[in-house]
Predict the structure.
Amino acid sequence: MPSSVIHAYEYDAAQHILTITFVSGKVYAYKAVPKQIYVGMRGAVSKGRYFNNYIKDLYDFEELV
């Protein structure tokens, strides 16, 4: 089921960076994200809810676009 908030995401395991592209078109790189958080997101039924509960406000980030 597509997310109404998150368009796409990818994980750089070497640098522990989770890059999330939102439906709005904004792209953010979340830093020092453990692989387990990425794995949890992949398995989450609601990507937006998972993001709000386990990523948002918990990791430093940089806006890319």
